[in-house]
Amino acid sequence: MAEAERLRTQPPSYTGDHLHSAEDQRQQQEADIAHRMLGLITYAATPRNIDLADLPDLADAIRDIVSDSQEAGNGRRRAAMQRRPG
């Protein structure tokens, strides 16, 4: 997740229609997949979308993942704001 956030906030440089290297393209694909997965997990964490009442352990795990990802994102945003010249 940290790598996905890094690529989202600091994408690699583009040259024309392609990224610099195959590694950059692979990292972008991984970030896209992680972003989609987190979106699906966030969707599942909303009780009006999916009823997980009969699976309380799964519901707790999903809420923990969403909470952790939000805390990590907030921490990175605070750090980025502190690095900006003001």
Describe the structure.
There is one protein chain. This protein has 86 residues and is mainly alpha-helical. It has a domain at 39-86. It is 70% helix and 5% strand. It is built from 3 helices and 2 strands, in the order αββαα. It has helices at residues 2-9, 22-45, 56-83; strands at residues 14-15, 18-19. α1 crosses α2 and α2 (22-45) packs across α3. The model has no long low-confidence stretch (mean pLDDT 80).
Element-level helix/strand string: HEEHH
**Into which percent range does the helicity of residues fall?**
55-70%
Q: Give the strand order of the largest sheet, numbering strands 1, 2, ... along the chain.
A: 1-2
Number of strands: 2
- Report the average pLDDT across residues: 80
Largest sheet: 2 strands, antiparallel
Identify low-pLDDT runs: none
Q: Give me the Rg, rounded.
A: 16 Å
Q: Number of helical segments?
A: 3
- The percentage of residues in β strands lies in under 5%
SSE-based structural type: mainly alpha
Distance between the termini: 29 Å
